[in-house]
Design goal:
The protein is about 20% helix and about 20% strand. It is of the alpha+beta class. It folds into 2 domains: about 325 residues, DD-peptidase/beta-lactamase superfamily (Beta-lactamase, 3-Layer(aba) Sandwich); about 80 residues, no CATH class. The strands form 4 sheets. The protein has an 8-stranded antiparallel barrel with strand order 12-13-14-15-16-17-18-19. The chain has a 7-stranded antiparallel sheet with strand order 2-1-11-10-9-8-7, with helices on both faces. Helix 1 runs antiparallel to helix 8. The termini are far apart. This is Serine hydrolase domain-containing protein.
Amino acid sequence: MVDVLPSTAVRLLARVARAQRDGRIPSVVAGVFRDGALAWSGARGAVPGRESGHPAVDVQYRLGSISKTVTAIAVLRLRDEGLVSLTDRLEQHLPGTPLGERTLAELLTHLGGLASETPVPWWERIPGGDLAELGLSDAEAVLPAGRRFHYSNLGFGLLGTMVARLRGAAWIDVVTAEVLQPLGMTRTTARPSGVAAQGWARHPWADVLQPEPEYDAGDLAPAGQLWATAADLSALGRFLLGDTGSVLSPDTVEEMVTPFDGDSRDAGWSSYGLGVQVSHAGGVTLVGHGGSMPGFLAGLWVDRSAQAGALVLANVTQGLDHSITRDLLATLAECEPHVGDEWVPAEPPVPLSLLGPWYWGPAPFVLKALPGGLLALDAIGPSGRESRFGPHPTIEGAWIGLDAYYAGETLRFSENSFNLSSFIFTREPYDPAAPVPGGVSDAGWTV
């Protein structure tokens, strides 16, 4: 492990101290991780039960919706084993609900149109039961499926219940055996275990506290039940950075963190992948999840390009500045910038004669080779329809769009042009020798 410099540690701790003081939070634990381990952790406040009274990376806090990421991993393991497909309807694996027409992909990305909560009272503050006790009906389908993002705790409760049915074991037993233990998250449990922080609500107008209740959420547990330490949460963050072990393949993790909408070339956007949130701001894309339950707030975010991440755990219902994780990562990047790999020459993935300027009609573009055997099509001048491309998985000699406008579209080269989603790119603007749709005027370019 490479610890941060003392000067960096001071700035990181100062940010945590400000969050705890300004938010009037009983305790806050935060950390940054890189190079496969926690590089720094800091805390403010107090947790009864600790010998020193101060919170530390071995104290449990409730994760809230970060639990959804763990549930999504369990679903993707089923998919990778061939037991389910993300296009399957929920009814195929969890029959009997009035919401069974939604696909697994729609539930994982919050595109199922399901109600955000259950029809029972505030489920996070009362003992939970099984699916039958929720009293679900058609009324929980509040929007048409696949039309728009609508965050749904209910959807992840259904996914977790499906995981339990298919594995023939309780959801917590499945994720413990298949996700938590392989990642070394031995202090992550469904209920508080060992030294754990009490959840508090603080009065909005006075410096007084009130304890929040904590119960087993039943079949809603997959949406927000887990408790974990900062040390364990950093292991989940390192998983999102690519340290996947035997839990999921790197390709599946890449699929997880790919946003279902939002153009990665835009200056700022936020979206959702498969059980993870994805946001882009200030030129940095972060992947992770926030979490909240009565008495607790949490955040876990990673910068995959810099191979670094940050986490925060707090025992308060409301008051945490949610920008803290982004600020911790920005401080780390400023004080100790990520040193990337050295540039080395590499054989281009296509002949050099295919690289360089191309034209879509009169609009100029440039096709470039990228590290890792990829291609990039970039506009020259004002931004246009741009994307990166990788080798097509099934069409020899063809390429497939990886992001932005041409994601999923096929690029095929011919003698003096290339076809991209029926658009013909040529070496000269409207080259008459190329198969330009509609042809090119015999008059050519005139004044």
